[in-house]
Specification:
The structure is a single chain. The chain is α+β, with helices and mostly antiparallel strands. It has 12 helices and 38 strands. Strands 6, 7, 8, 9, 11, 12, 14, 15, 19 and 20 form a 10-stranded antiparallel β-sheet that branches. The protein has an 8-stranded parallel β-barrel with strand order 21-22-23-26-27-28-29-30, surrounded by 5 helices. Helix 9 packs parallel to helix 10 and helix 10 packs parallel to helix 11. The protein starts with a strand and ends with a strand. This is Alpha-galactosidase. Belongs to the glycosyl hydrolase. Keywords: Glycosidase, Hydrolase.
Length: 730
């Protein structure tokens, strides 16, 4: 059984595929964290550090001075009653007190996994895929019930955690902090890995030793952000792609978050992760509940690669949903870098005609089709067709595209409004704002207050009207600025610190309604590129635009870092023009294609201006993608050489049965008189024989992994190579 409770030892044993997580019920009322790591047998007794005999050690029970919360590894700790580390939660009572004392009351173990009300989360398709443990903790003085929810997956090394608060009393409570998980580690010899960045440079890998004190990875921008992804990992010192212990924490949430790592005076390490407590409170009236987002915790003893492959499989199959979850996505052309705002129907159809001849399947009309949108200073919020550009409307354009044999897709930015728009002139109060204060502009736009039901209803009404009136099969949902002046004119003063979280809940409600009503549409998330590339969005949209930076060399690091948590099937990746519009770099069409092949493949350039040679290369890329997409989408990823560490990048995908593989190699800057190089592969079956397409030699998997394949000697910058491997069967 994945989860069991031993009443003799007061131990909860939670088992995922090859992982154990152990909790001890200490003195019949306190939850102490005992172990998380490689699967172990049940012990009759496990030691935990509860020593109170430290100098100045504080003891919470005057009748029992044998233990202290200051050193006890706790499952869901409070602050103020002998634990001085960062707490997992904090509740303010009507008298201003913020001291609580949660103790164990009961627990339940059952098959399956519950949905989280109003929030995205991983799921099961049958109850035998996972088991769930719910532990009820009570503070009898204030009638507060807190339920810790753990789910262990049978086929994944993943354990999910979330928390539900319920006010059973008569006084109003105010939640000041509600983290989704806390894990106390008994030692501090770890390295911290996180994904940082900026616009056009998202999810760069950074790895640092843990220091004494507190390290915080967070966003306070109203979105998960370009700057920090809602993910961290603790690594044993020297852990590599293939070896070492790795503990991953991935938050299924799209708003303000914090991942806090604290190494204390005794070298104990505490990790808490959840909604950022900065600028957050939640008023919990009598009888009300509050649910935290889910954290997906993954342990790997096979280094970063093992952790990544677990996240990839779980998120592909049990986070992403919908008709496109397991399908090849249509190969698209996006109009943005081809035309920007300067287009008409004739120009679009000429681009579409060229796309169809090259084998592209989906035409996406990006920004500029609505209101009077000739640049980025107007018309957001006016979701009606600009007949100057499209005299036959979206329906007329869509029908012509369909007649060509192309699907039709469209760009929206529904959360925003331009100051120069009919919507803003009619409803200036619909923006997030503080009355009387100047509204901060970003990208010439304001943020609509989607915490309000009336605002959400009107946005959805306009979007649905468009989606019903034209043959649209793809939507790119953009969000191009962070939140400022986070205040809602529709909320009372005591609830203003709920705005950030209510915004995310409103977003999820809108996405759930649209994706449910239009299940045939492929939705792609976007936020100025990769500013909201997080598991919360993936629950509603199976792919996200990885970055506005389409340069192939920049994308090496962006996609490499993104792959630490997210599978290739979720990454929008396009071939664009050169010189590249973000960095001005000129790279070969072949290399641009090789990089973009490791994602949801498409193009973003003016096809009518390409040379015949480039057009022939595009035809080859499209046919190649149709042949190998299943290896990339469904296979296991092995990162072979990191562009963060070397002048090259290399990675490969291997099918689950080990019968097919595809290998990619990109040389960044050329070298004079280069040495002979070999690339050692990974993930193959050592006992199987493989043939490399285009090479008649047969090699065993162990040879390919231990000796490698020869890298062709090529001159110049930005050259690339690709190999397709197939097992010789029979």
């Amino acid at each position: 059984m994945p989860i069991k409770f031993n009443p003799q030892t007061s131990m909860f044993f939670i088992e995922a595929k090859d992982t154990s997580y152990v909790i001890k019920l200490f003195k019949g009322k306190y939850l102490a964290h005992v172990y998380w790591g490689k699967k172990i047998k049940e012990f009759e007794w496990m030691d935990i550090d509860i020593t109170a005999g430290r100098v100045f050690g504080a003891t919470p029970d005057p009748n029992d001075k044998t233990y202290s919360f200051e050193t006890m590894p706790q499952e869901y700790p409070a602050y103020g009653n002998s634990d001085f580390r960062h707490p997992a939660y904090q509740i303010e009572q009507e008298d201003g007190s913020r001291i609580t004392n949660l103790v164990y009351k009961t627990h339940r173990i059952y098959d399956g996994k519950p949905k989280l009300e109003g929030l995205p989360a991983t799921y099961v398709e049958s109850s035998d895929e996972a088991q769930t443990l719910e532990i009820d903790l009570y503070d009898d003085l204030i009638d507060l019930k807190v339920t810790l929810i753990y789910t262990a997956y049978k086929d994944y090394d993943a354990i999910t955690r979330s928390v539900r608060f319920e006010n059973l009393g008569k006084q109003k409570l105010k939640i000041l902090r509600a983290m989704s998980a806390c894990v106390d580690f008994p030692e501090g010899d770890f390295e911290l890995l996180h994904l940082w960045g900026s616009w056009a440079r998202e999810r760069y890998i950074e790895r640092t030793p843990l220091i004494h004190g507190t390290q915080i990875i967070e966003s306070a921008r109203g979105e998960s952000s370009h700057q920090h992804n809602p993910f961290i990992a603790l690594l044993s010192k020297g852990a590599t792609e293939k070896f070492g212990d790795v503990y991953g924490f991935s938050l299924v949430y799209s708003g303000n978050f914090a991942a806090i790592v604290e190494k204390d005076q005794y070298n104990l390490v505490r990790v808490t992760i959840g909604i950022n407590p900065f600028e957050f409170t939640w008023v919990l009236d009598p009888g009300e509940k509050f649910q935290t987002p889910e954290v997906v915790m993954v342990y790997s003893q096979e280094g970063l690669g093992g952790m990544s492959r677990t996240y990839h499989k779980l998120y592909r199959k049990r986070l992403c949903r919908g008709a496109y979850r397991d399908k090849r996505r249509p190969i698209l052309i996006n109009s943005w870098e081809a035309a920007y705002f300067n287009f008409n129907e004739e120009k679009l159809l000429a681009l579409a005609k060229e796309a169809k001849e090259l084998g592209i399947e989906l035409f996406v009309l990006d920004d500029g089709w609505f209101g009077k949108r000739d640049d980025d200073t107007s018309s957001l919020g006016d979701w009606f067709v600009d007949r100057r550009k499209l005299p036959n409307g979206l329906d007329g354009l869509g029908k012509k595209l369909n007649e060509m044999g192309l699907k039709f897709g469209l760009w929206f930015e529904p959360e925003m409004v331009s100051p120069d728009s009919e919507l803003y002139r009619k409803h200036p109060d619909w923006c997030i704002q503080v009355r009387g204060r100047t509204l901060t502009q970003c990208r010439n736009q304001y943020v609509l207050d989607i915490t309000r039901e009336d605002v959400r209803k009107e946005i959805l009404r306009m979007m649905k009207e468009i989606l019903k009136a034209a043959p649209i099969e793809y939507i790119k949902w953009d969000m191009n600025r962070p939140l400022t002046e986070a205040y809602s004119l529709a909320l009372p003063p005591e609830r203003q610190k709920e705005v950030f979280h209510r915004y995310v809940l409103g977003l999820y409600q809108m996405m759930e309604e649209l994706t449910t009503e239009f299940p045939h549409i492929l939705f792609e998330g976007c936020s100025g590129g990769g500013g909201r590339f997080d598991p919360g969005i993936l629950y509603y949209m199976p792919q996200i635009w990885t970055s506005d930076d389409t340069d192939a060399i920049e994308r090496l690091k962006i996609q490499f870092g993104t792959s630490i948590v997210y599978p290739a099937s979720t990454m929008g990746a396009h071939v664009s023009i050169v010189p590249n519009h973000q960095v001005g770099r000129i790279t070969p069409m072949k290399t641009r294609g090789i990089v973009a092949l490791s994602g949801c493949f498409g193009y973003e350039l003016d096809l009518t201006k390409l040379s015949q040679e480039d057009k022939e290369e595009i035809k080859r890329q499209i046919e190649l993608y149709k042949r190998i997409w299943h290896i990339i989408f469904e296979g296991d990823l092995y990162r072979l050489i990191s562009p963060f560490e070397e002048n090259v990048a290399a990675w490969m995908f291997v099918t689950e049965d080990k019968n097919e593989a595809v290998v990619f190699y990109v040389n960044i800057l050329g070298e004079p008189n280069p040495s002979i190089k070999r690339l050692k592969l990974d993930g193959l079956d050592p006992d199987k024989k493989y043939i490399i397409e285009g090479d008649e030699k047969i090699r065993f998997g162990d040879e390919l992994m231990n000796i490698g394949i020869m890298i062709p000697r090529t001159w110049g910058d930005f050259n690339s190579h690709m190999w397709i491997l197939k097992a010789v069967l029979g």
